[in-house]
Amino acid sequence: MATAAVAAAVARATREIQHHFFSHDAVRPDRAVAFHPGKRIEERQFERMRSRGIIREAKPGLFWLDVVAYDIDLRQRHAIIRWVLLLMVIGLAIALGASIASH
Fold first, then answer.
1. 54 CB-contact burial (10 Å; exposed 0-12 / middle 13-18 / buried 19+)
2. pLDDT value at position 80?
3. At CA 21, angle to CA 80 and CA 31, rounded to 5?
4. What is the mean pLDDT of residues 92-99?
5. What is the pLDDT of residue 101?
6. Which of 4, 38, 52, 89 is deepest in the core (most CB within 10 A)?
7. What residue ranges in 1-103 does DSSP mark as E strands?
8. Could you tell me if 19 and 50 are in contact, meaning their C-beta atoms sit under 8 angstroms apart?
9. What is the pLDDT of residues 69-89, one digit of tens each?
10. How far apart are CA 64 and CA 57, in angstroms?
11. How many CB atoms lie within 10 A of CB 86?
12. Which are the contacts of 27, defined by CB distance < 8 A and separation ≥ 6?
């Protein structure tokens, strides 16, 4: 249960960061804005997005969201989730088949 709560908090922090940049139209270096994380989890997500190249620094203290990098990252994460779900379904089907065969 705690894992779900952490995942929800991470997702919310990510949305808040994205909203900040999209609402300020900070999607190009010449439109960079300041960002000050309100919570520790936002700070961690902000740094994670910077390390992935999604958030870029135009000038010291001014950042912008690289929409192309954001889209690529989002597609990669969705692809991973699809594979994990597919493997879970296959695993469940195999377990169910083995359970039926043993009876």
1. buried
2. 86
3. 125
4. 88
5. 81
6. 52
7. 55-59, 62-65
8. no
9. 999 988 988 888 888 899 999
10. 6
11. 10
12. 21, 64, 65, 66, 67
Q: How far apart are CA 74 and CA 64, in angstroms?
A: 17
The DSSP bridge partners found for residue 63 are: 33, 57
How many separate domains does the chain show? 1
Token pair of 1 as six digits: 């249960």
Using left for φ > 0, alpha for ψ between -120 and 50, and beta otherwise, residue 25 falls in: left
Q: Are 69 and 59 in contact (CB under 8 A)?
A: no
Q: Across the strands, what pairs with 65?
A: 55
- Residue 35 near residue 61, CB atoms below 8 Å: no
Token pair listed for 19:
């909203």
Q: Taking phi first (over 0 means left), then psi (-120 to 50 degrees means alpha), and beta for anything else, what does residue 62 get? A: beta
pLDDT tens track for 37-79: 989 999 999 999 999 999 999 999 999 999 999 999 889 888 8
